[in-house]
């Protein structure tokens, strides 16, 4: 379709993507960066551990790093969004920790937040020097975080659409990811059948149990690496049997070796 588009601004610790069409991060339910998403169109359901809701146009989704989430849709062509990804800086750290405390959906963000996003979308599509676009993004991100801290907007009630079985499975995995976990092992711990757990979990969260376990472990490993752990130490602390397993799964999921993450820690996106 000729009305599909993608515009980017890469400003170092923060990055903007304004796009319509198929998302590039399909299958990535955990991110190692914080994210604020302005949803602009397309029939899209947002799913996290505690929220399952069909998004309305103009909603803001707050996604702190390393939190399970996904945007689920059957048709990609109309999916329109403006996303700001960002990492901690010393200057913004206190503000980010206040605003990015939990996954939430805000159905009616403040007029100021919407104005800032609208302005960034317009700027991203303009033929301006990249330095000026970067300045605009950094300034807008700071103002959006301050606005969210001050006023927040009206958050949608947290809709816990998952069953008790799925919630128990999530809690069990999140507490025991360091152990040797399997689908049958989780099912046995919850006193339910493998078939029941597998179907409930996948139907309600859109992700198989084994993939959730792998992504949870990768997420934890990346957090350890961010804090200065070696790759071997990070793999051990996150529940992988050995470094070779960690390396293989990491490279298969991210399409690059885990050593590249250390390099990225010294760079920007």
What can you tell me about this protein's structure?
The chain has helices spanning 93-99, 111-125, 130-150, 164-176, 183-189, 194-205, 209-226, 231-237, 243-254, 259-265, and strands spanning 5-10, 14-20, 34-41, 45-48, 52-54, 60-63, 69-72, 80-86, 104-108, 154-155. By secondary structure, it is α+β, with helices and mostly antiparallel strands. A seven-stranded antiparallel sheet has the order 1-2-8-3-6-9-10. It has a three-stranded antiparallel sheet with strand order 5-4-7, with no helix packed on it. Strand 1 and strand 2 (14-20) form a beta hairpin. 32% of the residues are buried. The mean pLDDT is 88.
Which terms would index this structure?
globular, 3-stranded antiparallel sheet, 2 domains, alpha+beta, 10 helices, 7-stranded antiparallel sheet, Jelly Rolls, 269 residues, Arc Repressor Mutant, subunit A
